[in-house]
Amino acid sequence: MQEFYQLKRNLLWWTLVLTAIIFVSVWIAYNLNIALNYFIGACIGVIYLRMLAKDVEALGGQKVKLSKTRFVPLIGAIVLASQWNQLQILPIFLGFVTYKAALIGYTLTSLLPDNRR
Questions:
Q1: CB hemisphere CA count around 100 (13 angstroms)
Q2: Tens of pLDDT along 80-90?
Q3: Spatial CB neighbours of 50, under 8 Å, sequence gap ≥ 6
Q4: Cα(54)–Cα(76) distance, rounded to whole angstroms?
Q5: pTM to 2 decimals?
Q6: pLDDT tens by residue, 4-59
Q7: pLDDT tens digits, 46-78
Q8: Exposed, middle or buried by CB within 10 Å (0-12, 13-18, 19+), for 105?
Q9: Longest C-alpha distance within the chain, in Å?
Q10: In degrees to the nearest 10, what's the CA dihedral of 89, 91, 92, 96?
Q11: Which of 2, 18, 42, 83 has the most C-beta neighbours closer than 10 Å?
């Protein structure tokens, strides 16, 4: 279980670092409004990642499959973005998938020869 908690912390760290780097890059390349939309999506991605980790942690006990409630924040944000002109769907969605980029980055660095066990 210790490895699971370590993986959870590492993925959260990777996601937060990538979010900061991409947020500043988007702010410089586009504008603050798009960067804030990206940041909203990234925050939803972090919430999703934490909910997923909590679901995985509960597996094997009383739960036998993952719940789908973790998609509610993303669906809510997309619906809100489609109704409110200040929000944009694409930056929010791309911010949401930042955790996936963090997952790929973490996986690639863990495959390096120094990190193998």
A1: 6
A2: 888 888 888 99
A3: 12
A4: 20
A5: 0.84
A6: 899 999 999 999 999 999 999 999 999 999 999 999 999 999 999 999 998 888 88
A7: 999 999 998 888 887 777 788 888 888 888 888
A8: middle
A9: 50
A10: 130
A11: 42
Check residue 66 and give its pLDDT: 80
Q: List residues bridging with 59 in a β-sheet.
A: 63
DSSP string, the chain: -HHHHHHHHHHHHHHHHHHHHHHHHHHHHS-HHHHHHHHHHHHHHHHHHHHHHHHHHHBTTTBSS--SGGGHHHHHHHHHHHH-TT--HHHHHHHHTHHHHHHHHHHHHHTSGGG--
Residue appearing with tokens 């972090």: 46
Beta-carbon count within 10 A of 40 CB: 19
